[in-house]
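Incident log, structure service

09:12 report received: a user says their structure output differs between two submissions of the same chain.
09:20 pulled the input from the user's history:
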Amino acid sequence: MDNIAGIFRAMYCGFVDSFKGAIVLFYMDKQMNQRLIKASPSRNEIAKRDAKDSPSKASNIKEHKESKVLKRTIQCCALNGGVFWASILIFECGLLPLLKYLLQIIFGHSPSMGLIVWSWTKPFLSLTFGTVWVLPLFLLSKIVNSLWFQDIADSAYRYRQGRPLLLSSVSKLIADTLFSILVQALFLGQGMLVSRIPIPPIGDLLAMIHMCLLYALYAFEYKWFNMGWELHRRLTFIEANWPYFVGFGLPLAVLTHLPNSYVISGCVFSILFPLFIISGNEAQPVTGVCDCPLKLFSPVIAIANTLFNKTIGPAHPRH
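09:34 re-ran on a clean worker, output below:
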């Protein structure tokens, strides 16, 4: 009974901790920039002296030092919500209904002909819009978001932890990154696969748990990577303390599950994810409440190791 209570308590703590980023966001930049100014007065004097000879150099130094977490978060909201999502809504809820109405007026004498024309026009416009606008902007947003997410994560880590440790070598860093991407992709596929279980409550529950753990991994991975943790250690830690991470990833998993469109779901994720990155840096996960690790990553680890052994070379064994 105590074990069950501990599991629910850990889930609750994870759920609450996932909202910390929304609070810290508004004072992190100010405190961090003040800390930088106090910690390096000599560099400020050097920058002032250099400004006489090279103003651009001094501005570059200042720009490098300043924390821009709030700015980057607003940029994510503007790009994914104000541009990407809004353009889709305008097209689907504004332009298409307007064109349909105009066709009804033009073919008012022959409604059946208007319906036939619309049945050809709508798919053509949707395909054109998706190819010319949605797909390029989706790919561009993925690239830009990844850069902004990394900037937010590094600033959040410096604010709470200090200087990142990172991994010991460049080759290990590249291998860890590639292996992590492969594992995450396979785990996402595993989550989609279990959602097809013919018993709806079980399939939906397992799929939701997969998404909660995956989103928690996304959020905490920046912090753990800066701490020098390798992928196997990160996954083992999540599996051993799964109640906390299920609770942490639950809000984002639910909110991204609500839209019917994969693209809109991606917009929701990109808007909210910076807050979860910050929350992950602020959080202290509840550990040791469950004696049974949830080995959901083990199947994809085995597959990823097999693929790595056949393509790149032997992967590091999981400890």
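09:41 both user submissions now match this output. Likely a transient worker issue. Closing.
09:42 reviewer note: Residues 2-311 form one domain. Residues 111-160 form the longest helix (50 residues).
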